[in-house]
Design a protein that fits this description.
- With 209 residues, this protein is an all-alpha fold.
- The protein has one domain.
- The longest helix is centred in the middle third of the chain and has 33 residues.
- It is elongated and about 65 Å long.
- The N terminus and C terminus are likely disordered.
- Keywords: Membrane, Transmembrane, Transmembrane helix.
């Protein structure tokens, strides 16, 4: 009598071998998404709260956009407008991509992965632009620090050539300094996470991919 050979175990082994390859994603994609997406709901809430910062920056830039408010360097308001707009867009994109990675990770569809990848690239390019724009704004602001005055000629209603509105200039000056401080803190935090807690970072951030 011929023995019947079941092919079911072979099929199971074949499926098990193919499944990791089907879900495999290139490491550079994972690191790209890890750099822009929030890893938890708490981080997502922080991102939502951070929306207030670029809104304030944008509002002050628009409010004092008239060159007469800062004749010594009228581009300071331009810096605030552009930086606030880009930062606002980046945070919104971060919220979108973080929402996808946190709440819809179980779908793991090709469309969602492509969407996350596209948004991550846009955020990365926007971040590079923001850093370059930060340096440009620093040059415009700090180079006139010793010449700028904040007194307005109330008698003749005249703005001197080295005048800049105190709210506009002081806000920009402090904002730039805080931006550099937060940038250093963020870099140190990322280095600490990658060196000291690499397993935790992979578990929290790469779950979607």
């Amino acid at each position: 009598m011929k023995k019947e050979i079941s092919i079911e175990p072979l099929l199971v082994k074949t499926v098990n071998r193919q499944s990791p390859d089907a879900n495999q994603v290139h490491p550079w994609i994972r690191y790209l998404v890890a750099g822009v997406a929030a890893a938890s709901i708490y981080s997502l809430i922080v991102l939502i709260l951070l929306l207030a910062i670029p809104i304030i920056v944008l509002a002050i830039g628009v409010r004092y956009h008239d060159p007469r408010y800062c004749p010594i360097e009228p581009r300071i308001s331009l810096y605030l407008i552009v930086h606030g707009s880009v930062a606002l867009g980046l945070i919104i994109l971060n919220i979108i991509i973080s929402t996808i990675t946190i709440f819809f990770f179980y779908h793991r569809s090709l469309i969602s992965i492509i969407l996350v990848l596209i948004l991550s690239i846009i955020i990365l390019l926007g971040t590079i632009f923001s850093f370059i724009w930060l340096i440009i704004g620093s040059v415009w602001t700090f180079r006139v620090n010793k010449q700028v005055i904040h007194e307005y000629d109330t008698i003749n209603h005249y703005y001197t050539y080295n005048y800049c509105h105190p709210v506009l200039y002081r806000f920009t000056f402090v904002y730039l300094i805080l931006s550099y401080i937060l940038l250093v803190i963020a870099c140190c935090y990322q280095c600490f996470i990658r060196i000291c807690c690499p397993k935790i970072q992979k578990k929290e951030t790469f779950a979607f991919l």
